[in-house]
Amino acid sequence: VALSANGPVTLWARDAAWGRDNPRLPGVTLPDAIRVTDDLGSATQAGTLLLALPAQALGGFLADHAALLDGKRLVSTAKGIDLTRLTGPSTLLSEACPQATIAVLTGPSFAADIARGLPTALTLACADRKAGLTLQHQLSTPVLRLYLSGDIIGAELGGALKNVIAIAAGVVIGAGLGDSARAAIITRGFAEMTRLAIRLGARSGTLAGLSGLGDLTLTCTSAQSRNFRFGQAIGARQPFDAAITVEGAATARAVAALSRKRGEDMPIAAMVARLAESSISVDDAIQHLMTRPLKEE
Ligand SMILES: NC(=O)C1=CN([C@@H]2O[C@H](COP(=O)(O)OP(=O)(O)OC[C@H]3O[C@@H](n4cnc5c(N)ncnc54)[C@H](O)[C@@H]3O)[C@@H](O)[C@H]2O)C=CC1
Ligand SMILES: O=C(CO)COP(=O)(O)O
After folding, report:
1. Nearest Cα residue to atom 36 of ligand 1
2. Which of 82, 218, 268, 281 is deepest in the core (most CB within 10 A)?
């Protein structure tokens, strides 16, 4: 919707029959500049393709359709780590489409805010600076401001890991533990995110930017976030609609596996992984975090 302010846009979906009003984006009617199709061959005629799939769906999508995407500029918006491969979306894309230019678009941004035209600032990460500059200008609008970064690993890990911490923040609020406890989760969660990301090749400055701290702040403090609401439901011992996309749940499991492999201590992520699969109670998870050996900050 935002990009249609810059020119014609083609939107591909497996089922285009729902027309111009999508129940996932209530109150937003697609502008006329958007052509909706279920024909992937025609949608991939464009040179720049944005992939807005959940992280756990991307691998399967690429297995079916990589040939149509190779050689293009591919911009991933997924915020997660693939559970089977333990890699981010950019690695899945570059392995499936070796001739493509890969970029990641991420940062604090609820889809509903962007579609309503509210001002938003994002990180566009691309290892190829020239292609990154082209994309930055192509995808920015007067209300959508893209900052360019060369650190694709840091940008995508910030977006993926903040979802895990947002679940933890939701648990704290849902369980009635208060805003001070949430601030502790955000801060110690940020330390955890940064440690793992640097270990995996990220630059620390990227984690402190929009794609890391920026998105962490948004997602841990807003009930618009699905990850936060999922955590809130766990904390309040309430059910949660399984049809809602909660990237942080699978990503917490991927992070637990990655941290074991890398010998990196990720205590909050480990608790989120266990809470998401109901293998620990909220009380035990809190007790576990609070009674760890005392440390220096
Ligand atoms: N919703 C938001 O505010 C934001 C979402 N993101 C990220 O974007 C990604 C997608 O999120 P949403 O659009 O919110 O999720 P969603 O679950 O609301 O929508 C995803 C869409 O992808 C479709 N889909 C799933 N598997 C598919 C496949 N194999 N082939 C074709 N289509 C498939 C689903 O049918 C659904 O329509 C996630 O990684 C999320 O973290 C990033 C920023 C903001
Ligand atoms: O990534 C998002 C905001 O930047 C969307 O967060 P949720 O997936 O938790 O709704």
Report:
1. 53
2. 268
pLDDT in tens, 7-50: 999 999 998 887 788 888 888 999 999 999 999 999 999 999 99
Strand, coil or helix: 75: strand
Residue whose CA is closest, atom 23 of ligand 1? Answer: 53
Interface predicted TM-score of the whole assembly (ipTM), two decimals: 0.98
Q: Within a 10 A sphere around the Cβ of 168, how many other Cβ atoms? A: 30
Is 248's C-beta closer than 6 angstroms to any atom of ligand 1? no
Tell me: do 46 and 160 sit in the same domain: no
Overall domain count for the chain: 2
From residue 98, give the alpha-carbon distance in Å to each of 47, 70, 71. 15, 7, 8
Where a domain ends, among 152, 185, 213?
Answer: 152
Cα 266 to averaged position of ligand 1 atoms, centre (Å): 26
Cβ of 65 less than 6 Å from ligand 1: no
Domain end, chosen from 112, 136, 152, is at 152
Active site residues: 162
- List Cα–Cα distances, 112 to 90, 100, 120, in angstroms: 25, 29, 11
Instruction: Determine the distance separating the centroid of ligand 2 and the alpha carbon of 124, expressed in angstroms.
Output: 16
Q: Are residues 136 and 8 in the same domain?
A: yes
**Domain of 43, in residue numbers:** 3-152
Q: Is 151 annotated as a binding residue?
A: no
